[in-house]
Write a structure and sequence with these properties.
With about 300 residues, the chain is mostly beta strands. It has strands at about 10, 20-25, 30-35, 40-45, 50-55, 65-70, 75-80, 85-90, 95-105, 110-120, 125-130, 145-150, 155-160, 165-170, 175-180, 185-190, 195-205, 210-215, 225, 230-235, 240-250, 255-260, 265-270, 285-290. The protein has a single domain (about 10-290), classed as 6 Propeller (Neuraminidase), CATH 2.120.10.
Length: about 300
């Protein structure tokens, strides 16, 4: 049964992107970090200033996610093509640079690139790849999902991935949620927090026509699923697969979601204007009045 409620959707200033993705709310700086994938741009929305800063990542073609590194101010893990790199950025300067490469995956797959990535509750980076040919981007299942842990080899979580996308965790329930967009569903896994191993997948949300993208979770364990082709964010109760709310957005290509703000009760939403989508496509939004709170996002331990 769908909840009936009043929520408010507003764009943040200067948050326009070609393909916005990877929103991460940093409690320490009270900032929303996100990326503009295909132009290798990093963005930071400063809540107190109500201002968005952006930087071009020098020498790179793509930037697919950005996550602060625990204990290292001004250092971030970023996905660049098939490489996980460390980037130095003060959050203000118009340029940022790669300071070292952490790992490279799928070196034999020249047309693949990393897509969405997040830190799990223990600080491991979990990120996956996708086939990235502009002619037939959604035709092959050559992607993989990986776990990157400090001082350990890269672990393969899942192969046979079409478009590796949304990730989120329910630490209390020891569950991991993952979206392969080509499956048009969300899978729930049992997740071993000590080892980072995901097992026993089951489908908890399926949509026959909307392409699911990014995802987040609230303190009640409900997941929020962005749809790249549906102008909608679905709030879903995983235990019953029930859709509790449909948040209708003002543009079609909704890429990802993250809770932020001082009380973690603002849902920030990235979007895309790929393939000449009309305005206001590409804006980054805040959704208020949902009456829920999100969980603090984890920094990467590296």
């Amino acid at each position: 049964m769908l909840l009936s409620m009043s929520y408010k959707i507003e764009p943040i200033p200067n948050g326009e992107t070609l393909i916005g993705e990877g929103p991460h709310w940093d409690i320490q700086t009270q900032s929303l970090y996100f990326v503009d994938i295909d132009v290798a741009r990093l963005l930071r929305y400063d809540y107190k200033e109500n201002k968005t800063y952006s930087a071009v990542l020098e020498g790179e073609e793509y930037a697919s996610f950005i996550i602060p590194i625990e204990g290292e101010s001004g250092k971030f893990v970023v996905g660049c093509s098939r490489r996980v790199v460390v980037v130095a950025w003060d959050g203000v300067a118009p340029k940022a640079k790669v300071v070292r490469v952490v790992r490279e995956v799928q070196t034999d797959f020249a047309l693949n690139r990393l897509n969405d990535g997040k830190a799990d509750p223990r600080g491991r980076l979990v990120a996956g790849t996708m086939y990235n040919s502009p002619k037939d981007m959604f035709s092959k299942r050559e992607g993989e999902l990986y776990s990157f842990e400090k001082d350990k080899p890269v672990k393969l979580i899942k192969s046979d991935v079409g478009v590796s996308n949304g990730l989120t965790w329910n630490e209390k329930a020891k569950k991991f949620y993952f979206i392969d967009s080509l499956d048009y569903n969300v899978k729930e896994y049992d997740y071993n927090l000590d080892t980072g191993v995901a097992s026993n997948p089951k489908v908890v949300f399926q949509h026959s026509s909307y392409f699911p993208d990014g995802m987040t979770i609230d303190t009640d364990g409900n997941i929020y699923i962005a749809t790249f082709t549906g102008a909608t964010i679905f709030k879903v109760k995983p235990s019953t697969a029930e859709v509790l709310l449909e948040i209708q957005m003002p543009c079609k290509q909704i890429t990802s979601v993250a809770f932020g703000g001082p009380n973690l009760d603002i849902l920030y939403v990235t979007t895309s204007k790929l393939n000449d989508q009309p305005p206001p496509a590409g804006n980054t939004y805040k959704v208020t009045g949902l009456g829920v709170k999100g969980l603090p996002m984890t920094k990467v331990q590296l």
